[in-house]
Amino acid sequence: MLENIKQTITGWDERNPWTNVYGLARSIIALSSLLTLLVNHPSLIMKPASGISSYPACKMNLSLFCLGENNYMMLNLLRWVCIVILVLVVIGWRPRITGVLHWYVSYSLQSSLIVIDGGEQAAAVMTFLLLPITLTDPRKWHWSTSPLEGKRTLGKITAFISYFVIRIQVAVLYFHSTVAKLSQQEWVDGTAVYYFAQEKTIGFNGFFQALTKPFVTSPFVVIPTWGTLLVQIVIFAALFAPKKHWRLILIIAVFMHEIFAVMLGLISFSLIMAGILILYLTPIDSTIQFTYIRRLLWNKKQKKGEVSV
Q: Domain limits of the chain?
């Protein structure tokens, strides 16, 4: 057993955990929070709720927004502070610095917003679990793919252990979600999607209700209902699956969440989960090449060159 542990640590020392894989994941998670703050004034997302007269609720709460409790002018100023921080995270500047700030902004949003989709809570947990990786990341930009100088053995061990914990956490999240659904009769009998479609708060809008009514009111409604359960089970099982299957599972999982985004309006939640799934289903020591984007930019440069000539 000790020999296996030694071999694992030796393998970690030869690999690089600080790649653009986790950089892309944290940028997408930050982008979701950024969009939420950009398009929503504090008066819409921080307001009194049932049994809570102050906004945001700050009892036993260390949220940044508690500095502006019951003051929308101050809350709006704090919103812009968070927007600046999130922009720095999205562009990938100094993970060692912005990693902690990103977690605190995510925690503050999760603690202060009147939300119902659960995305902010997932972001707060994930940015916290990412701290050991960001704090040991020596790069100026998290998009950088340049070779690192020095061995950095301790930092690599810390980062890989954190990544392992993150994968377990994501698997548990989907396992718990599946088990919770199976305890509800509408998921077992295959009619849950029908009830979600009719739900007043996050259900289908008028367009999608009219478009999907013949389907969701038919026996075929069991397909998306049980299909959701099946995909979640597959995502959980990916914890034990060979890496060669990860990419296909990632595509299926992200596709499922984007359907949620379009049909149910869960844009921020779906973006956050997409970022988390990239981290879960992409080897952290690999490098994303962004081949299509590079080719597109290169072609544009060539066209500009031809015009100037």
A: 2-165
